[in-house]
Amino acid sequence: MVQSRRAATEQLAEVRAERDELAVAERVLERVSEQLADERTSVAPAPGQVGGRAVMLIPHRTPDLEETTLPPDYQRILGAVRQAAGPVMTRQVGEMLGVDVAVRAKLEPLRGRLVRLVDRGWLCKLPDGKFTTCL
Fold first, then answer.
1. In three state form, how does the secondary structure of the chain look?
2. pLDDT tens digits for 41-82?
C-alpha cells in the first residue's frame, strides 16, 4: 500500500510538471501568434496618398474583392491572361492588348503591371516567366 501511494504521488508530480510545461507552451504560442499577426500587418504595403486620402490602386486580392475594383487597364490585362489557352509571356499579352510588341519600351510597362498583379495575388508567375491566373 505504501508503494502504491508512493507511485501515485510520483505520477501526480509528473502530471503537474507536464501541466506546467503545457501552460508555458500555451503562453509562448500566444506570444508568437501575436508577433506573427503584427508582422503580417506591417508587411502589407502602405497605400499611397491622393488628395490627402489613403488609396491603393491595385489592392491585394481577397475572397470578397471583385475584379471590378481594379483600374480598367488592369482589368483588360487580367481578361487577356484569362482568354489565353494557357500560361502566357508578356509579349503574348501585349499582342492581345494591341501593344506594339516590337518596341521593348512598350512591353516593360506591361511587364511591370503583370508583376504588380502577381504581387497582389491576382495572377501567378511560373518559374519560366509566364503568367497565368491563380486558382
1. CHHHHHHHHHHHHHHHHHHHHHHHHHHHHHHHHHHHHHHHHHHCCCCEEECCEEECCCCCCCCCCCHHHCCHHHHHHHHHHHHCCCCECHHHHHHHHCCCCCCHHHHHHHHHHHHHHHHCCCEEECCCCCEEECC
2. 555 445 556 666 656 678 888 888 888 888 889 999 999 999
